[in-house]
Design a protein that fits this description.
Elements: E1 5-15, H1 26-40, E2 46-55, E3 62-74, H2 78-94, E4 101-109, H3 114-117
Antiparallel strand pairs: 1-3, 1-4, 2-3
């Protein structure tokens, strides 16, 4: 593929239920996203609402919960890895979570611009 670059695609999955009761509100999520994720990746990322199902490590029951998925594409580096780890650990501690799922995939991509259409 001419003009393609190899990058790392990372998805982070943040469950919004809080163990013991409650949930991460839209306002709490927005504050977290604006203050923690955006400064780490000012060049951009994608944020979406999804439904997650997973086995609770304490109750051993499969639960369904509203989840935020963050997708970040960038060059693989120690700095990027550190930023992703900081984001997940901050969320875990701030909202008393058991875990945040992280999925990394090596990809080839090409950004198609308006100029390419001419």
């Amino acid at each position: 593929m001419a003009g393609c670059a190899t990058m790392q695609h990372t998805d982070l999955y943040f469950g919004r239920n809080i163990p013991g009761g409650g949930r991460v509100t839209a306002q709490q999520w927005r504050a977290f996203s604006d203050s923690i994720i955006t400064p780490a990746f000012p060049e951009g990322y994608t944020e979406s609402d999804v439904q997650g199902k997973w086995m609770d490590t304490e109750s051993r029951e499969t639960i369904t919960e509203d989840t935020k998925r963050i997708t970040v594409i960038g060059k693989r580096s120690a700095k990027r890895n550190s930023q992703l780890n900081h984001i997940t650990q901050t969320y875990i501690h701030r909202f008393n979570q058991q875990a945040v799922l992280r999925v990394d995939t090596k990809i080839r991509y090409r950004l198609i611009t308006k100029k390419d259409a001419d």
